[in-house]
């Protein structure tokens, strides 16, 4: 049990800026075992956002509150995933060939496509979350990041490394059936709790499809995936889940 808890804390250290000031074992096996806890990392991020939402709704208008909720999500992760999303857009839309695309993705400078993608990402999430407040309670704030992190386990299982080395290689094809099953079951349970059984039944199969298509897109562009691909997929899935929630809310109403 202690080992599993350490692996969970390792994933919190790796994927967020939550101050876990511990020296934890970080072998390849520890990262493999840690993939089982990706949805719980999303749950942790989402719960902090939800607490902010509950606290501020008592004193501020809903639209301002949702600005803080989106901002807190970025700050908690250190813009980890959204940075990967921006780098991926910079590289892929440059259309220069595999080596050049990867070089652009590694470049610390921010290009035009990254700026456009990040601004669109934040605006889209904000507008969706404001709209969802009229149809759902605030629990969707917790559910969305859970599914986003679960999608990373799908991509890790499907993908092949586009580079010989990189942080993404800690997870690419380094996820066992047991870890994937734990991640999947955890996601189903938590998603059903925070988004509802019907929404979960609709969303989870579609998440597999979208992630599969994104993996194929990466294969076409760079012959595999990188750490940035994980961040990009997380952001794409979060946007997708928010969109589906809006669509189902309209149908129900």
TrEMBL record:
Pathway: Cofactor biosynthesis; adenosylcobalamin biosynthesis; adenosylcobalamin from cob(II)yrinate a,c-diamide: step 7/7
EC number: 2.7.8.26
Keywords per UniProt: Cell membrane, Cobalamin biosynthesis, Magnesium, Membrane, Transferase, Transmembrane, Transmembrane helix
GO molecular function, a single term: cobalamin 5'-phosphate synthase activity
GO biological process terms held by the UniProt record: cobalamin biosynthetic process
Spans through the membrane: 37-57, 64-82, 110-126, 138-160, 180-213
Enzyme class: transferase
Topology in membrane: Multi-pass membrane protein
Stated role: Joins adenosylcobinamide-GDP and alpha-ribazole to generate adenosylcobalamin (Ado-cobalamin). Also synthesizes adenosylcobalamin 5'-phosphate from adenosylcobinamide-GDP and alpha-ribazole 5'-phosphate.
Official protein name in the record: Adenosylcobinamide-GDP ribazoletransferase
Organism field: Clostridium acetireducens DSM 10703
Lineage: Bacteria, Bacillati, Bacillota, Clostridia, Eubacteriales
């Amino acid at each position: 049990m202690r080992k599993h808890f350490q692996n969970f804390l390792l994933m919190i250290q790796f994927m967020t800026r939550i101050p876990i000031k511990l020296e934890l074992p970080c072998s390849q096996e520890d990262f493999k075992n840690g993939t089982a806890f990706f949805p719980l990392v999303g749950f942790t991020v989402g719960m902090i956002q939800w607490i902010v939402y509950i606290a501020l709704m008592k004193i501020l208008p809903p639209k301002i509150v949702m600005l803080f909720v989106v901002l807190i999500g970025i700050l908690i992760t250190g813009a980890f995933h959204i940075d990967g999303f921006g780098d991926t857009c910079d590289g892929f839309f440059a259309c220069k060939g595999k080596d050049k695309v990867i070089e652009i993705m590694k470049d610390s400078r921010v290009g035009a496509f990254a700026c456009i993608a990040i601004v669109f990402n934040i605006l889209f999430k904000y507008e969706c979350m404001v709209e969802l407040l009229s149809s759902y309670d605030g629990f969707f704030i917790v559910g969305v990041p859970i599914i986003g992190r679960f999608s990373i386990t799908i991509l890790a299982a499907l993908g092949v490394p586009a580079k010989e080395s990189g942080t993404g290689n800690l997870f690419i094809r380094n996820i066992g059936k047991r870890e994937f099953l734990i991640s999947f079951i955890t996601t189903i349970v938590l998603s059903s709790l925070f988004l509802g059984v019907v929404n979960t039944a609709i969303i989870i199969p579609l998440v597999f499809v979208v992630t599969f298509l994104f993996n194929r897109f990466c294969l076409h562009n760079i012959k595999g995936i990188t750490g940035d691909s994980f961040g990009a997929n997380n952001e794409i899935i979060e946007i997708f889940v928010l969109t589906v929630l809006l669509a189902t809310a309209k149908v129900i109403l």
